[in-house]
UniProtKB/TrEMBL annotation:
<dbReference type="GO" id="GO:0003677">
    <property type="term" value="F:DNA binding"/>
</dbReference>
<keyword id="KW-0548">Nucleotidyltransferase</keyword>
<dbReference type="GO" id="GO:0006261">
    <property type="term" value="P:DNA-templated DNA replication"/>
</dbReference>
<keyword id="KW-0239">DNA-directed DNA polymerase</keyword>
<keyword id="KW-0235">DNA replication</keyword>
<keyword id="KW-0808">Transferase</keyword>
<dbReference type="InterPro" id="IPR005790">
    <property type="entry name" value="DNA_polIII_delta"/>
</dbReference>
<comment type="similarity">
    <text>Belongs to the DNA polymerase HolA subunit family.</text>
</comment>
<dbReference type="InterPro" id="IPR027417">
    <property type="entry name" value="P-loop_NTPase"/>
</dbReference>
<dbReference type="GO" id="GO:0003887">
    <property type="term" value="F:DNA-directed DNA polymerase activity"/>
</dbReference>
<protein>
    <recommendedName>
        <fullName>DNA-directed DNA polymerase</fullName>
        <ecNumber>2.7.7.7</ecNumber>
    </recommendedName>
</protein>
<dbReference type="GO" id="GO:0009360">
    <property type="term" value="C:DNA polymerase III complex"/>
</dbReference>
<dbReference type="InterPro" id="IPR008921">
    <property type="entry name" value="DNA_pol3_clamp-load_cplx_C"/>
</dbReference>
Length: 341
């Protein structure tokens, strides 16, 4: 297996391994997938004199012409240097093209493939993880430690210090998507430019709507039965470039976490203890909706709801054009089921 462990990701991405020239980046955090791809592609292209830079291919196009990926990877750079190819997977199957690439003798080009959330047995993930010529890196939503590190790094880069309570407040408002989080931090640092420190007041002034960008509002509102709020937040997320199937994936994971908490409650625990013991910790602004959801659902009903969300998620992934509509309908059905409870 050439799946990269979470603790080894940064070291792995710090250099181009000529023995493993194919890199698959996948996961529910599409923003993190794209950020890591952008940084690695720039590193791979360093020193190249090719004026055309990085060759970018659409996954759905190469699915219909599997040989094109091999042709592009095997083409000698016009002005010398390493050939760098970027592939963004879409709704269609690109596994035949990738398998042909991995079997290609003398592959010297660097190929970076960006994909969405892939299950362990997904063919694209399985092909890359089982090949000695590829690396596979999962990109999951940032945890509290990751977000704190990102905030500190960006603040230091802007020449600003940030108060501890401001950092804690900001961490609670971020986390659904790396690019959205980075955008909110950049906005905050610009707002606080010229001040001696970034304070909690700055965070409340400028990042008040970051929870919607982090998708917590979509998830919490749907599970609490608040249809209008869930759909309003959903359309905000779509406006920020998030895909319907990715949002449904986050809803499914949240429902799984809620299911585990309900099991603890039904075994004799309390709602308050379940919320206080949640890891990662639930931000105080989310607690009222999470508590409402925990009191409204049972573990058995959540199991049925999860099956329905999974079906909608699969349908949304199979049809990119209908994905946003299918995800919206699933959110409305989930919220309606929550209210009936």
């Amino acid at each position: 297996m050439v799946a990269v462990r979470p603790g080894d990701v940064e070291a792995t991405l710090s250099r181009v391994d000529p023995l493993r020239p194919v890199l698959l980046l996948f996961g529910p955090d599409i923003g993190l997938v794209r950020e890591r791809a952008r940084v690695f592609l720039a590193k791979a292209a360093t020193g190249s004199t090719d004026p055309f830079g990085i060759v970018r291919l659409d996954g759905d196009e190469i699915a219909g012409d599997p040989g094109r990926l091999v042709d592009e990877a095997g083409t000698v750079a016009l002005f010398g240097g390493r050939r760098v190819v970027s592939v963004r997977a879409g709704a269609k199957n690109i596994v035949p093209a990738v398998d042909a690439l991995l079997a290609m003798p003398g592959l010297e080009a660097v190929v970076v493939i960006e994909a969405g959330d892939l299950k362990k047995n997904a063919p694209l993930r399985a092909s890359c993880e089982s090949s000695p010529r590829a690396l596979a890196i999962a990109c999951y939503a940032d945890n509290e430690r990751d977000l704190a590190r990102l905030i500190d790094t960006m603040a230091a880069g802007a020449g600003l210090a940030i108060d501890r309570d401001a950092r804690e407040e900001l961490v609670g408002l971020l986390g659904g998507d790396r690019l959205a989080s980075r955008g909110e931090i950049e906005k905050l640092l610009l707002y606080a430019a010229g001040e001696p420190r970034v304070t909690a007041a700055h965070v409340r002034d400028i990042v008040g709507d970051a929870s919607a960008l982090a998708l917590d509002e979509v998830v919490d509102s749907a599970l609490a039965g608040l249809s209008a709020e869930a759909i309003e937040a959903y359309h905000k997320a779509l406006g920020e470039g998030m895909r319907g199937d990715v949002i449904l994936g986050l809803v499914a994971r949240a429902a799984q976490g809620l299911h585990l908490m309900r099991l603890g409650i039904e075994a004799g625990g309390s709602v308050e203890r379940a919320i206080d013991g949640a890891r990662p910790a639930i931000h105080f602004r989310r607690k009222p909706l999470v508590e409402k959801a925990l009191r409204g659902w049972t573990a058995a009903r959540l199991e049925k709801a999860l099956l329905a969300v999974d079906d909608a998620l699969l349908a949304a992934r199979r049809s990119a054009a209908l994905g946003p509509v299918l995800a919206e309908r699933a959110l409305l059905q989930l919220a309606a089921t929550a209210r009936r409870g």
